[in-house]
UniProtKB/TrEMBL annotation, chain A:
Domain Acylphosphatase-like: 15-101
Name the UniProt record assigns to this protein: Carbamoyltransferase
Keyword terms of this UniProt record: Hydrolase, Ligase, Metal-binding, Zinc, Zinc-finger
Example GO molecular function: ligase activity
Enzyme class: ligase
Superkingdom of source: Bacteria
Catalytic activity, as annotated: an acyl phosphate + H2O = a carboxylate + phosphate + H(+); C-terminal L-cysteinyl-[HypE protein] + carbamoyl phosphate + ATP + H2O = C-terminal S-carboxamide-L-cysteinyl-[HypE protein] + AMP + phosphate + diphosphate + H(+)
Annotated InterPro entries: Acylphosphatase-like_dom (IPR001792), Acylphosphatase-like_dom_sf (IPR036046), ATPase_NBD (IPR043129), Carbamoyltrans_HypF-like (IPR051060), Carbamoyltransferase_HypF (IPR004421), DHBP_synth_RibB-like_a/b_dom (IPR017945), HypF_C (IPR041440), HypF_C_2 (IPR055128)
Gene3D superfamilies: 3.30.110.120, 3.30.420.360, 3.30.420.40, 3.90.870.50
Family matches, as SUPFAM superfamilies: Actin-like ATPase domain, Acylphosphatase/BLUF domain-like, YrdC/RibB
Amino acid sequence: MAPSPENHPRQHISRLRLNITGAVQGLGFRPFVFRLAEELHLAGWVRNTPAGVEIEIEGHPKQLSAFRTRLETDAPPLARLFTIEPCTLPPAGYAEFNIQESGAHSAAVPVILPELATCDQCVADIFNPDNRRYYYPFTNCTHCGPRYTIIEDLPYDRERTAMRIFSMCSTCREEYGNPADRRFHAQPNACPDCGPSLLLYDATGTLLRKGRKPGDIKAMLNRAVDTLRSGGIVSILGLGGVQLLTDAANEEAVRRLRSRKARDAKPFALMVPSVETARTLARISPDEERILRSPSAPIVLLTRRAGAPIAPSVAACSPSLGIMLPHTPLHHLLLKKYGAPLVCTSGNLSGAPLCHTQEDALRSLRRIADLHLLHDRPILRPVDDSVVRVFRGREIVVRRARGYAPLPVGPSQGPDTLALGGELKNTLCWRAHGLAVLSQHLGDLETEASTSTFRREIDNLGRLLHAGYGRLIVDSHPDYAASRYGRYLALKKGLTVISVQHHVAHVMACIEENHTPRPALGTAWDGTGYGTDGTIWGGEFFDIGETDCRRIAHLRLYPLPGGDAAAREPARCALSLLHSLSAEACPTLRKTVNRELAATVRDAVRSMMDKCFNSPLTSSMGRLFDAVSCYLGFHGPNLCEGHAAMQLETLARRYHETEQNKPSPLSWDIREENGCLVCDWEPVLRLLDSELKREASAEELAWRFHDGLAELIVRIAQSCRRTHIAVGGGCFLNTLLLDLLCDRTEQAGLTFDYPQRVPAHDGGLAYGQLAAAGLTLTTV
Amino acid sequence: LAHGGGGEMTSRLIEDIFLPAFGTENLTQHDSAVVSAPKGKLAITTDSFVVHPIEFSGGDIGSLAIHGTVNDLSMSGARPLYITAGFILEEGLDTAVLSRIAHSMGQTARQAGIAIVAGDTKVVEQGKGDGLYINTSGIGIVEHSLAIAPSSIEPGDAVLVSGDIGRHGITIMSARAGIDLQTDLQSDSANLWPSVSTLLQSGIAIHCLRDITRGGLSMTLNELAETSGTTILLDETAIPVCETVRSTCDLLGLDILQTACEGRYLAIVPEKQAEQTLLALQRHNPEAARIGTVIPSGTAPLLIDGLLGVRRILSKPYGEQLPRIC
Ligand SMILES: [Fe+3]
Ligand SMILES: [Mg+2]
Ligand SMILES: [Zn+2]
Ligand SMILES: [Zn+2]
């Protein structure tokens, strides 16, 4: 009889201790370890630690090594292991494997899990008439359901979550206590006998119905479906807050939602019942499908199909459609009944943070929704829907919130520090316990409510992470609300406050995320940020070393007549560039601008520039995009952020996808001025002008403009002899630009990194600020 | 104009220009003015005027200096009595311009019923001044027993403005931007004492008055809220702004709430007298309006409710207006 592993002589047994850091708690990682150990006939224990889990495992070395491998390959889908430190020890003689309770010392667990979309098994439960959770909208298990939005404190146990107000029935308690059950230690475990209820309110805030039994739920869902079918607007309380729903095919309904929300032309996202429905609206690659279906269940930006049956005002200024799948049982039940795409947008007033309580929904959305479908499971903090896009098979995060936040972005070296981010699309980033934890998207810090949320989340996150901070980092813009608050906090607590230049933070976010080797060329292109020399930066190149950072190149400066007004009206920037040239240059472009701007406005804007009145000089690439888009036919003001730039990208992409033989790029002039390189756009304008005169298509020129930008970055890298390139700033949300850069850098033998898990725009600033705080910035 | 250095040239300036412009009976020819002191508390203020351009539609640096000083006194509820004026002239200044400004100043003072009682003149080298600067001091008498000061502001008080805002700032700014507005827009530079006097006579228990000058409504109200330890909540739709000012702000990319006035003030009064205050203010300017309420200290000193109930924070401008959008 062959000896079984248990019968091996003692000297062949060894013990391994594994110290694992990462996001491993609360998603069934310990039960997974338990099952794996049992399967491999290994003894020992697993327990949570402040930074992750600790495992001791004892058995035959071969089994141990199998355990090591499968720990990584078979881990639950959302578990992220950052580091595994093994340590071999003499055998301790364990008889069995068990899950140890977290000891008192591990009260501080830095990794908080995000919300997870309903898993397939739970979906099956709610549609199975024989299951006790049939039609129960708050069904969940260790693989799915709310996490971050219900956690009051760590360790993650039911009594420290918003679920503690619901006391589990005996059946739920049994599931919760059984290691073999899918709901073992599922903190939000609930059922129609003991869990949260669904509530239906009318527009005036009168409660129409409340319940958790299939009959109640069906009646409420039917009422919601009727309202949606007749073009009404329904608010629904999801995982992280309220979403507003309306029929995506009903133009009148979509317009009504837009006007009631006072929202500009910014595209609305859609929720569809299935990937099959999504395919009727957009082209979907296997990678895109995988991400749509992932536990994070984000809004995925997809290429719209021509003639997709949706109302025109859903996304009038974008060629993409943002689509997500149902991610809670409530969404599954509703979408299944409705059977067609719904607009699904954040339930907030324009500029204010997401409503996340019943009271707030009924009060703030009173004039917006015709019916409210809410629930009584408290949501402790607002977490919006995340937005991602897929580029070359990789996921690029555009808005980091539900399903992502507050997972650590990665390890981060240095003292505990809090970075406060920028003004718009604000996020916080906390370095604690050696990890960089990025908060959910907190919105624009212009409203009282978003500012309150911002301040509250600083406290919340600090409490959850059990972290403090010895220093604060802010953007160097003196007027940013986050910078003001940072200075105030520092003063109050007697701490150091470090201000970091906006574009250096953008570049460092990319370098830190990708571990880009240094020295590297960092390119930051965005709208406008506060420079260190009294000008407004936005088209910058830095040589990034280990401890210092030198601004080595920037765009040729031009005035921004009217400051922020120039960001609203692309024609102002178009006029400004021409105004810097000799009077007879670029007659064709001038004609276009003259058509766009009334003579009186033109005279006034010119006069402002001549007198240097409210016309700060800028090197902004974002505004240059606006100007070029205007030359190539963009009309009117920017109706939403990035409107003109998106139109330019769309033109170029059309050419990119249809033309095989590509003409030469619109090349820039690079010259040296006082030891710094200046990238001059004048030749680009002159070429545009002459090519338009010979009636080249706008599509072709838009493409050649993009390619010229990719070429520019490569040329700068070559001229400063750098082989690694990192980029940051809102301009790099443009995936055609990324595409061309990938090609050109590859041809030139350079490495190219771009932001992925952390947004390229200001939503990633806080993460970059952490890494940038140690750099000395020099300019020439 | 040539560099005088206190000699013959300077005295000729005084004799030829200032004395006739101001009227000689009060302007002392001695080192100090001796005036009669009325019974009661005195209000004393000093201010410097460096506006550029020095002549603009609806006024000039001279009338502005009188109004500014009179208004500062009025804001403590003091009746303006005396004013002194110090001039710093840049070598090369056109004497015709100087004469116009001096006359405007004299006329404005007479209209306001305030006596210019002492003056001084210095001429600086070319390039060291901006044509003309004026420094003034004013003395007024307090004839009421109210504590008109930020410390009297209480949650619950009503906030009113004496007229539409931004005319002065926009007039000056468009002149500086070299833009002909092609409208009859003029500075709002005016004497605020008649209006304040009406409030006092109407028996309003005024808590605070503040003229809206540099930094506009935003700066002025932020300061008041900060000093009084309260929060002021504005209703954006209630703030009176004329169409020309609004459209010019858009054109120049300026924030109307940060745009200066020189003849508008804020009255902070008990809620129960808000209506009465409004009627009194409207007797002097029909555009006067109730624009906000004082609330207990909140998220920030100054909040504003915009359309559809979104409440924004209006922070104190740090320096010049900088682009914020990224
Ligand atoms: Fe930026
Ligand atoms: Mg003053
Ligand atoms: Zn599940
Ligand atoms: Zn139960």
